[in-house]
């Protein structure tokens, strides 16, 4: 047996669940025949399909399997000898004793055919065993050898060896050296034979080695689809499948010259550009900027093969590795949506990963899990992992528990192609296969480029501190361009002179481009935009006016939308009884010309849809609403999966409304919706958290993309975050949307009275709103689209106010000429004699209703004024000033239900003091400082509520704070 190569790994027995996932129709058997005294590894699973044709075509492993399956269904369907054999095997007969020759079978035709391929063998049991052993050997190469014992590592030092895979030889499967020359029929689950159906064992092994033990390793046998597995086998097993023409090789060399020389010149001519300094002068546009390799790009080029334009878009990305993954997916989905690409045949995404980040960042898993969801699929993504076998200074053995960084992709049955990046032809072939896979099956695929990082983490890093042996080897490695050039020169594909001329030609191109760049004194940020919005910022060639039209609607329009919101516009559709009551209540509100929170949202959405604005609302449970208030999707109670979305029945020429429950992900889904909002300014894209504090796990998207997006990349975005917020005595987990975090990140200066109105909105990094009135919520949603620019909008939405009888708005507050109110002044009895008002309480959100209730109970309606700040950022300095001056004799109080170190107090206090020029103190009424957002004890909650309400209406309590 010494002549057998031992590149194979031990084939691990399949569990029942694994067996069910292997290709083809598969059935386990409890025992398998063995011959003589040899030991035999039991076969756990067959992969050949059952055939109904007669068993007259010679013995092969497939043939035996077919008989076995037929026997399971009907023992009489096979010859008596096979019936006896299978009965003995299933009964647990000892090795070598399952086969028995029945009387009258001495010279049957079947016996002659059974031995026709491998010579005369009286022992049919050995024949069966040998064929099954060959199939097991082939399967071993397909399952484990293809990625555990390939030459995919660019370095001889393996930093994450697969030591748990033990070598397995053909002898492991009961095959002997004498079997090498025997001819075996090939199963249908391999393509190594090409046009041949049978091969000698030694040729079978050679072809398996060529297919699976070279520079490409393929992980695919976990895929539970026979067609897909067969497709991959054909791409890698077919003899001589990876052939390159002379022209292909020369073109590949030219492309390598360009990429290699570009990076070399980048280091030589501008060594500091990686840290943010760009050649060519200053930056014309405002913004903090970012290092240049974080910036996006938008480029249109001609495809010389099809003679058609291809648009390439590189999404701007931060140093938070993999955070951009869902953003790219969302942007891709939007581009597909807007061009009607329902199958992903016109728009696709390619994600470039690092190996350590791919294995270590949970957002990779979240993004993969969006890949096949109806409202999130982009119909397949090509993932390219640049596997330099190190994470900054951390070895893979310290950075991951899995053998490969790409193992996370197995969760969605994505094939994984490992390739030695020092073999350019193998890389190109694998990339072509990946592209074909995506085009054929519209599913994700991973290309794992196994390579190394020559310079360490960056040009200034010293990797020898932590990886001395690895970098000793790297220093000895020839650059891949030089390796490939020498290979082609040796083959005669190019001459050394042609190679040197190619380098000189490209160097000249770079020199000329660099010289031209010096004449460009100003860097235009528009060159770095990944999704320009042509025509949006101008009107008839001129900049848009910095104004915002009224966001109100006509009475007729409000009634029409209200009628749709309270009906089922589909015949023979049975809805839930509870929904019937909700629709009736909506119809009653429409008759009374009032709206609650849900109906106000319906009015805003419906009106924008009628105006041609696409709306997409996603998040956990948004179709119904976490608090059962929305019900935008109706489900037929008698027909499975039959739904109705009334908002898509507003008018024949309306824009589509997309409302979709998301996976249980915040990080991934918010990133996806952010990317979707990038594609077009003429759409309202909203993400709603199930509870406001769930944005915690999406904080990276907020911190890196939403908050500083325009400052870093001069990139406007109009995404809306709906964050349910309110202290309802339900515990700390779902009470607070953490408004203090959003307010802390606002860029307005608390010590400066700014210009007002639309200009103030234009200068802010985002808009933060806590509306207490449904009518105001209606206006702010419409204003988000009618503004002449785009800013992220953060809305702290209510919970108990969704059904509060006083949280209603009249149609009069939504008619033409009305606007969003940044501050709602007190127009009650206090407006009769404002000079007699002794206390002016500023507040925001739900606490307003608790304050008004307390004021009534104390009989203070004429002496205590309550003003609601609806827009917290940008802060309404002008309106706060007007209220303070109107109640000039009043003490000023800020009241909130949140704890003092949370909520809004630290944000509003210095701004109120700037407004009044620090003429008065600003007293605080609210809960004291705390670590948790809220108490979990209902009684404690009520005690805290009573305490701060007493403080709000007790002047002496204010003075005690001094």
Automatic annotation (TrEMBL):
One of its GO terms (cellular component) is nucleus. GO terms for molecular function: metal ion binding; oxoglutarate dehydrogenase (succinyl-transferring) activity; thiamine pyrophosphate binding. Its main location: mitochondrion. Transmembrane segments: none annotated. It comes from the Eukaryota. Its cofactor is thiamine diphosphate; Mg(2+). Residues 16-35, 263-290 are annotated as: Disordered. Keywords: Calcium, Glycolysis, Isopeptide bond, Magnesium, Metal-binding, Mitochondrion, Nucleus, Oxidoreductase, Thiamine pyrophosphate, Transit peptide, Ubl conjugation. It catalyses: N(6)-[(R)-lipoyl]-L-lysyl-[protein] + 2-oxoglutarate + H(+) = N(6)-[(R)-S(8)-succinyldihydrolipoyl]-L-lysyl-[protein] + CO2. It is found in: Mitochondrion; Nucleus. The keyword Calcium applies. Its EC number is 1.2.4.2. Residues 263-277 have a biased composition (Basic and acidic residues). Residues 595-804 form the Transketolase-like pyrimidine-binding domain. InterPro entries: 2-oxogl_dehyd_N, 2oxoglutarate_DH_E1, DH_E1, KGD_C_sf, ODO-1/KGD_C, THDP-binding, Transketolase-like_Pyr-bd. Residues 16-26 have a biased composition (Low complexity). One of its GO terms (biological process) is tricarboxylic acid cycle. SUPFAM superfamilies: Thiamin diphosphate-binding fold (THDP-binding). Belongs to the alpha-ketoglutarate dehydrogenase family. This is 2-oxoglutarate dehydrogenase complex component E1. It comes from Salarias fasciatus.
């Amino acid at each position: 047996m010494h002549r057998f190569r031992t590149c194979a790994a031990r084939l691990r027995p399949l569990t029942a669940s694994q067996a069910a996932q292997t290709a083809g129709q598969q059935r386990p058997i409890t025992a398998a025949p063995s011959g003589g005294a040899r030991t035999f590894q039991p076969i756990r699973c067959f992969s050949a399909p059952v055939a109904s044709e007669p068993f007259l075509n010679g013995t092969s492993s497939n043939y035996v399997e077919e008989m076995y399956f037929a026997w399971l269904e009907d023992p009489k369907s096979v010859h008596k000898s096979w019936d006896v054999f299978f009965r003995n095997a299933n009964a647990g007969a000892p090795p070598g004793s399952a086969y028995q020759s029945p009387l009258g079978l001495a010279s049957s035709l079947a016996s002659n055919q059974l031995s026709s391929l491998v010579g005369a063998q009286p022992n049919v049991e050995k024949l069966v065993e040998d064929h099954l052993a060959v199939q097991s050997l082939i399967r071993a190469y397909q399952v484990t050898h293809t990625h555990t014992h390939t030459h995919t590592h660019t370095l001889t030092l393996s930093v994450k060896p697969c030591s748990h895979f033990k070598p397995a030889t053909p002898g492991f499967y009961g095959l002997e050296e004498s079997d090498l020359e025997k001819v075996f029929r090939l199963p249908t689950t391999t393509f190594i034979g090409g046009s041949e159906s049978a091969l000698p064992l030694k040729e079978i092994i050679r072809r398996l080695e060529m297919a699976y033990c070279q520079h490409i390793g393929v992980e695919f046998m976990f895929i539970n689809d026979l067609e897909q597995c067969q497709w991959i086998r054909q791409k890698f097993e077919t003899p001589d499948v990876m052939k390159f023409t002379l022209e292909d090789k020369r073109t590949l060399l030219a492309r390598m010259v360009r990429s290699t020389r570009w990076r070399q010149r980048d280091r030589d001519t501008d060594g500091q550009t990686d840290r943010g300094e760009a050649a060519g002068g200053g930056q014309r546009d405002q913004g903090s900027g970012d290092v240049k390799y974080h910036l996006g790009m938008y480029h249109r080029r001609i495809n010389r093969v099809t003679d058609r334009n291809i648009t390439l878009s590189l999404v701007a990305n931060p140093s938070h590795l993999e955070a951009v993954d869902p953003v790219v997916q969302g942007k891709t989905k939007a581009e597909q949506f807007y061009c009607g690409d329902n199958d992903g045949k016109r728009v696709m995404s390619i994600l470039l990963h690092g190996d350590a980040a791919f294995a270590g960042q949970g957002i990779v898993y979240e993004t993969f899990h969006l890949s096949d969801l109806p409202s999130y699929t982009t119909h397949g993504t090509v993932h390219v992992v640049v596997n330099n076998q190190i994470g900054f200074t951390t070895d893979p053995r310290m950075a991951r528990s899995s053998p490969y960084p790409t193992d996370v992709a197995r969760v969605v049955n994505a094939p994984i192609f490992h390739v030695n990046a020092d073999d350019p032809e193998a890389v190109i072939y694998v990339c072509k296969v990946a592209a074909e896979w995506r085009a054929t099956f519209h599913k994700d695929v991973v290309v794992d480029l196994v390579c190394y990082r020559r310079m360490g983490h960056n040009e200034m890093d010293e990797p020898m501190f932590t990886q001395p042996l690895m970098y000793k080897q790297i220093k000895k490695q020839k650059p891949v361009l030089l390796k490939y050039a020498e290979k082609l020169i040796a083959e005669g594909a190019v001459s050394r002179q042609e190679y040197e001329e190619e380098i000189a030609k490209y160097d000249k191109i770079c020199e000329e481009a660099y010289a031209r760049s010096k004449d460009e004194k100003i860097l235009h940020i528009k060159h770095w935009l990944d999704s320009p919005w042509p025509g949006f910022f101008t009107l008839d060639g001129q900049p848009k006016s910095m104004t915002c039209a009224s966001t109100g609607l006509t009475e007729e329009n409000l009634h029409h939308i209200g009628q749709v919101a309270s009906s089922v516009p589909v015949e023979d559709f049975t809805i839930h009884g509870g929904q019937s009551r909700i629709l009736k209540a909506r119809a009653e509100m429409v008759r009374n010309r009032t709206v609650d929170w849900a109906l106000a949202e319906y009015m805003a959405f419906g009106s924008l849809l009628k105006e041609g604005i696409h709306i997409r609302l996603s998040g956990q449970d948004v179709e119904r609403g976490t608090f059962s208030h929305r019900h935008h999707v109706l489900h037929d109670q008698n027909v499975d999966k039959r739904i109705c979305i009334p908002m898509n029945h507003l008018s024949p020429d309306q824009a589509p409304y997309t409302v979709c429950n998301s996976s249980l992900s915040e990080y991934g889904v918010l990133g996806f919706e952010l990317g979707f909002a990038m594609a077009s300014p003429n759409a309202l894209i909203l993400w709603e958290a199930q509870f406001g504090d769930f944005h915690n796990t999406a904080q990276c998207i907020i911190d890196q993309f939403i908050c500083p997006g325009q400052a870093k990349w001069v990139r406007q975005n109009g995404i809306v975050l709906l964050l349910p917020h309110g202290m309802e005595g339900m515990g700390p987990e779902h009470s607070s949307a953490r408004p203090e975090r959003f307010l802390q990140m606002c860029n307005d200066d608390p010590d400066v009275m700014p210009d007002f109105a639309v200009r103030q909105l234009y200068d802010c990094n985002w808009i933060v709103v806590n509306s207490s009135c449904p009518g105001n919520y209606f206006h702010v949603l419409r204003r988000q689209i009618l503004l002449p620019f785009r800013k992220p909008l953060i809305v702290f939405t209510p919970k108990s106010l969704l059904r509060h009888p006083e949280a209603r708005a009249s149609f009069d507050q939504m008619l033409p000429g009305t606007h969003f109110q940044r501050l709602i002044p007190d127009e009650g009895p206090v407006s009769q004699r404002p000079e007699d008002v002794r206390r002016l309480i500023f507040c925001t959100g739900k606490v307003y209703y608790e304050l008004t209730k307390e004021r009534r109970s104390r009989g203070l309606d004429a002496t205590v004024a309550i003003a609601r700040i609806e827009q917290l950022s940008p802060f309404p300095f002008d309106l706060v000033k007007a209220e303070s001056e109107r109640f000039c004799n009043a003490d000023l109080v800020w009241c909130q239900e949140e704890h003092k170190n949370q909520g809004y107090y630290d944000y509003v206090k210095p701004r109120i003091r700037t407004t009044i020029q620090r003429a008065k103190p600003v007293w605080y009424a609210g809960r004291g400082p705390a670590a948790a957002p809220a108490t979990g004890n209902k009684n404690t909650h009520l005690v805290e509520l009573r305490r701060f309400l007493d403080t709000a209406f007790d002047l002496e309590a204010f003075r005690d704070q001094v």
